[in-house]
Amino acid sequence: MAQPLTADEPRPLPPALDAMTLLVAAVIVHDLDTNRVVLLQRGPNAKFAQGMWDLPVGKNQPAEPVTDTAVRELREETGLTVDAHTLELAHVIHGARGVEAPNGFLTVVFAAHTWTGELLNAEPTKHAQVSWIDTTAIPENFVPTTRSALTGYLSHGARVSLDGWQDQASTASWRGTCG
What's the DSSP call for residue 44? Predict the structure, then answer.
């Protein structure tokens, strides 16, 4: 139970809901031995990008660390389980707007090289198929934002992508480190 505020403690501010950015996690499951990745094809009932290929991806829940979002979404969509501590940061996508994100979205893309379980289409009402795909045969019909993350990861290229921003400089992708 929360303790009441004392007179000298600042009152919490109301949430800035009008400025909220949707937090999303995606996972590139990469079998290094066979050079294949797990991809899903969105089904006819998907909220967006029906028929397009994508990474396992989903929205963050309140009070959930983004690494837990990645683990949960991967398991819910593919039946595969990964340990959050083994996830590697692969890419970040910052979109100006999205289907369920009028104020933008931030997708944190992780790579996983170890997992347990057998690949299956665990959400057949959302996905037409879930498959291991050779990295040299990535389908053309792919959600553009996650395609940029996957190609950046596979080529050891860009680590940050911006999508839908107006000025030309902010639509570029960056490679490098901060600090």
Answer: T
